[in-house]
Amino acid sequence: MLPFDRLRLWIRSYIMEKFLEPDFTEEDRQVYTPLIAAAMRGHYDVVHILLTQLRPNLEKEGCVKFDGHLIEGASALWVAAGAGHLNIIKLLVEHGADLNHHTRNLSTPVRAACFDGRLDIIRYLVDHDANINF
Q1: Are 91 and 58 in contact (CB under 8 A)?
Q2: Structural domain includes residue 132
């Protein structure tokens, strides 16, 4: 077995062991999946392994804090857009993430990217048919 294969198996078993529950909760009312956590923090390799090895529900919603506001109904794509992680956005889109999935306040990934003026993310999402009129 190659070293990378061993590492991938270890990460998969670690994730399964640590996150047998589909969600985990932080003290400040944030609730989110491992995929949302990795997307929010910009952990590309973890997102990749989760997508390829565990095939999680890409539209599973979480409750996350951005700029001091609690955002309910955020998907992994929304948090990646809000945090400015274009490489993770590309990976999520390649795996079929819904470009127009919105939070409970009707905020889409495009809108999340607009808050920080991330034209690169906005262009990518629009080029992949995200609805800018939502």
Answers
A1: no
A2: no
Which regions of the chain are under pLDDT 50? Answer: 20-22, 25, 27
Q: What is the pLDDT at residue 36?
A: 94
Residue 100's pLDDT is 97
Instruction: Pick the closest to residue 27 from 63, 56, 80, 51 (CA basis).
Output: 63
> Is residue 57 in a domain?
yes
Q: How many domains does the chain have?
A: 1
CATH value at residue 116: 1.25.40.20
Residue 33, domain member (yes or no): yes
pTM reported for the whole predicted model: 0.82
Domain range spanning residue 113?
A: 3-127
How far, in Å, CA of 132 to CA of 134, rounded? Answer: 6
What pLDDT is stored for residue 20 in this prediction?
Answer: 43
Predicted local confidence at residue 1, as pLDDT: 55
The answer to whether position 64 is within a domain reads: yes
